[in-house]
Amino acid sequence: MKKSLGRTIRMAVPLVALALAACAALDGAVESPAIDGGTVVFRYFSSSARTVQVAGDWNNWSAGDAGTGEVLVGLMEKGEDGLWTIAVDLPPGRHRYWFVVNETGRVLDPVNPRVTEDPWGGKASLCIVP
Question: Is the pLDDT of residue 81 over 70?
Answer without folding.
Answer: yes
